[in-house]
């Protein structure tokens, strides 16, 4: 209802592309397949549960591939992978092939090279979820929907989202880290966006790519 109401306001204001990425005007209890990017996870809540949500505009869901890799597989970003007993086993990455509708899981650090082969092609292969190898607990989830594949035609650009759990057996939140002149409270998670520049798909007028930080 919120999306539909906002669409009506946007139309009255004469805004470009109002509601073009809404594939349904009736809510049936599940937002999947309706257009908006959807990421979800189910877990038993801890005494202190820290969750960080990322949202992107007009890009492929594969834009989360490198940040998730840096958070959960790169010891130069997340030192806990080396020194923390509850993280040393590493994490497993579930990668989805959105064209063939197939999934494959890679264990880090054992299969990092194989993982990179796939997530290095973010327009097709996308990290769907990340799991702690020791406990099996879900650590992160991202949306992998493609509007064009759902609708069968171009109906707008994708706006992917990502959910990341923090603290304990996951990358820490309260370890402050100086990055240039920035001091980031959620260092091991948010540091990725400040320090590492990557090229991601951004279909400006449907044909261009842009530099994204």
Break the fold down into its secondary structure elements and pairings:
Elements: H1 2-12, E1 50-55, H2 65-73, H3 80-83, E2 91-97, E3 102-107, H4 112-119, E4 125-132, E5 138-142, H5 147-151, E6 161-166, E7 177-179, E8 182-184, H6 187-195, E9 198-201, E10 209-212
Antiparallel strand pairs: 1-6, 2-3, 2-4, 4-5, 5-6, 7-8, 9-10
Provide an overview of this structure.
The chain is of the alpha+beta class and 213 residues long. The chain folds into two domains: 1-36, no CATH class; 37-212, no CATH class. The protein contains six helices and ten strands; from the N terminus they run αβααββαββαβββαββ. It has a six-stranded antiparallel β-sheet, covered by helices on one side. Strands 7-8 form a two-stranded antiparallel ribbon. β4 (125-132) and β5 form a beta hairpin. The chain is globular and about 55 Å long. Keywords: Carbohydrate metabolism, Gluconeogenesis, Hydrolase, Lyase, Magnesium, Metal-binding, Schiff base. Pathway: Carbohydrate biosynthesis; gluconeogenesis. It catalyses: beta-D-fructose 1,6-bisphosphate + H2O = beta-D-fructose 6-phosphate + phosphate. Its EC number is 3.1.3.11.
Uncertain segments are: 150-155, 174-185, 206-213
Largest sheet: 6 strands, antiparallel
Give the distance, in angstroms, between the N- and C-terminal Cα atoms. Answer: 32 Å
The secondary-structure class comes to: alpha+beta
Beta strand count: 10
Helix content: 10-25%
User: What count of domains describes the coordinates?
Assistant: 2
Strand order of the largest sheet: 1-6-5-4-2-3
Secondary-structure element series: HEHHEEHEEHEEEHEE
Strand content: 15-25%
Overall pLDDT: 76
What is the general shape? globular
Q: Total number of helical segments? A: 6
User: Rg, please?
Assistant: 18 Å
EC number: 3.1.3.11
InterPro entries: FBPase_V (IPR002803), FBPase_V_sf (IPR036076)
Protein name: Fructose-1,6-bisphosphate aldolase/phosphatase
GO molecular function: fructose 1,6-bisphosphate 1-phosphatase activity; lyase activity; metal ion binding
């Amino acid at each position: 209802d919120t999306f539909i109401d906002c669409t009506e306001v946007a139309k009255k204001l004469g805004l470009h592309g109002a509601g073009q990425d809404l594939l349904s005007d009736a809510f049936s209890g599940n937002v999947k397949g309706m257009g908006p990017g959807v990421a979800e996870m189910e877990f038993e809540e801890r005494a202190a549960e820290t969750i960080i949500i990322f949202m992107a505009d007009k890009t492929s869901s594969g834009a989360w591939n490198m940040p998730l890799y840096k958070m959960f597989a790169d010891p130069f970003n997340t030192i806990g992978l080396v020194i923390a007993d509850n993280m040393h086993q590493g994490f497993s990455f579930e990668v989805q092939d959105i064209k063939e509708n197939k999934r494959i899981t890679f264990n880090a650090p054992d299969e990092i090279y194989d993982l990179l082969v796939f997530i290095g092609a973010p327009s097709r292969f996308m990290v769907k979820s990340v799991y702690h190898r020791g406990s099996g607990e879900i650590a992160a989830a991202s949306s992998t929907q493609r509007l064009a594949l759902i609708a069968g035609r171009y109906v707008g650009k994708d706006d992917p989202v990502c959910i990341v759990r923090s603290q304990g057996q996951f990358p820490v939140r309260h370890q402050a880290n100086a990055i240039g002149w920035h001091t980031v409270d959620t260092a091991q998670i948010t540091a990725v966006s400040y320090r590492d520049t990557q090229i991601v798909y951004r279909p400006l007028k449907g044909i261009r790519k842009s530099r994204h930080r």
